[in-house]
């Protein structure tokens, strides 16, 4: 609660106004008996305590009632006073200053002459009312002060909340002049660019300014735009939202919020972690390979070096990359994955590096942020890096060396702090020999290589993976499968698993959809597995057999005529005589 001291100047003015009119001295004290205002002989005592003389004031403060004392110095209340029996005061009227029924101070008229005493005595009722009204005026001022202090504190509180926001917030009037902004907004803009009265024109492009101002014309209008800001450090892509601030009497200002794009990405990523928040423990398997991979991943997570994961499709390369990211100090940043095979060459560059507005025909307004920028402070997973075109390999190498990127059509390099984890199923060494993969990039990404063996070479992992997938699908499909028949199990072990763990997962899902009791049997196998003969490794990888099949396919494609044979020999990369020899040898007619 605000104390009377806070309005002492006002109390002094009131005291002087009263004294001028009634020609009697006034003394005002607060609830601690501190003299806060006074006239005549009391004026120079302002600021001094009255606790040794103000016995009448004490009584008024205690009771909250007015008090008239006709015999100062003699009245029993004056008993403890030093001036008892010798008081210079002749007559005294004291009123409480009440705020919310509580005495916060007292105001008194003090007569030092018989004439003054007589005057008050004869008009006592009027003086009492007058003094009460004056006390009320001071109380009112105090309430007003209290209200103002409340407003100031609420304002301060609101500002602190607004400053806590990570989002930049700017309010502008309907002409676009800045009224207010929070600390985050201040941090976003270059030095001194954002000040009160700055016009939006100095902050955003004319189109964005006009979009923002349009919001002020309609209470229901909200706009959202992707904008690029020249921040203190560099250029940054932001999501801008503008919304009307509806106050009494309609919209008088507009609120503009700004949020860095990569931060949004991080939030989305964090929220979606449930799905992809793999940890090392999720990598299942009892084989030496898997156990070593788990150990390796822990060590790798602690370093910042580039990792190259090699393995066939479906062996868990992305899963491993995500586990490394989630275990590393970059876990709060984004994990961005890009499959170099899945994206057409022409788009891959812009996906990776982003582009500036107007960089090429068809470029999106406001430009586009690339995966490298999105993965800033996080991890970029370059899947199937072996399929990346050579010119992009050169660009990737430059990013890894210089730790900065340039958007397509951009001139300012943007620093990025990204850990790259690359993956491939291809033989990079062979590609290098043929000039299809850059040697320098190979050595740059191959700092920490991790090989994941195909499932057919670690069949001991099938059991635990099956159990894991069965548990998952039991929940998802609301089933209660608990057993595998011996034949079912045997078929899984015999199969060559070209699609690796992903294929196993699909096979289990297929079987569980068909199963209606607790056991998966041979009849629940997909046709592909049902028809699969027991894998004969010697047969499967026999070079002669592979050669015969290839020649046969080629021969069938081009036909048996002389011209067909010539074409076949050319396609096979052998001479015509050799082809004839091989046709005879393999008994192909
Ligand atoms: N060791 C494992 N433990 C549990 N699940 C696994 C394991 N390995 C792979 N998986 C699962 O198999 C599926 C395929 O894994 P992932 O996508 O990581 O493979 P990939 O090697 O990156 O495949 P691609 O090269 O085709 O992109 C995922 O559902 C993953 O959870």
Automatic annotation (TrEMBL):
It holds the Pfam family Sigma54_activat. Coiled coil: none annotated. Keywords: ATP-binding, DNA-binding, Nucleotide-binding, Transcription, Transcription regulation. Residues 283-513 form the Sigma-54 factor interaction domain. GO terms for molecular function: ATP binding; sequence-specific DNA binding. Signal peptide: none annotated. One of its GO terms (biological process) is regulation of DNA-templated transcription. InterPro entries: AAA+_ATPase, AAA_lid_NorR, GAF-like_dom_sf, Homeodomain-like_sf, HTH_Fis, P-loop_NTPase, PAS-like_dom_sf, Sigma_54_int. PANTHER family: C4-DICARBOXYLATE TRANSPORT TRANSCRIPTIONAL REGULATORY PROTEIN DCTD, TRANSCRIPTIONAL REGULATORY PROTEIN. This is Transcriptional regulator containing PAS, AAA-type ATPase, and DNA-binding domains. It comes from Desulfosporosinus meridiei (strain ATCC BAA-275 / DSM 13257 / KCTC 12902 / NCIMB 13706 / S10). The lineage of its organism: Bacteria, Bacillati, Bacillota, Clostridia, Eubacteriales.
